[in-house]
Design goal:
56% helix, alpha+beta, three-stranded antiparallel beta sheet, 104 residues
């Protein structure tokens, strides 16, 4: 029984290293989303940090700030959803078959 436990611990350590490598790779990835037909572009990294927001001059209307705000929110939510989807797809391979509430 001790041998099985040692093997299981080795497998868990191996899986943990793979998970950490996958997470590091995710953090290094870049994601981009646009709204308003490319009028607003939001870029983020895999850590969910917004690294750039690009706004085309023609979408800036002082009389319609709400539209610009909506475009920024839409692009930001889209880029964050992309990161979530990629994270779930990448990290989900490690938890497939495990019934662990609260995991990815």
């Amino acid at each position: 029984m001790k041998g099985n436990m040692n093997n299981m611990m080795k497998q868990m350590q191996k899986m943990q290293k793979k998970m950490m490598k996958a997470q590091d790779e995710l953090h290094e990835m870049s994601f981009e989303a646009t709204a308003g037909g490319g009028m607003v572009t939001v870029r983020a990294n895999g850590k969910k940090e917004i690294v750039d927001v690009e706004i085309k001059e023609e979408v800036v209307d002082p009389d319609d700030i709400e539209m610009l705000q909506d475009l920024i929110v839409a692009a930001t939510n889209d880029v964050l959803n992309q990161i979530d989807e990629k994270t779930n797809a990448t990290m989900g391979q490690f938890t497939k078959g495990l019934n662990m509430p609260g995991m990815f």
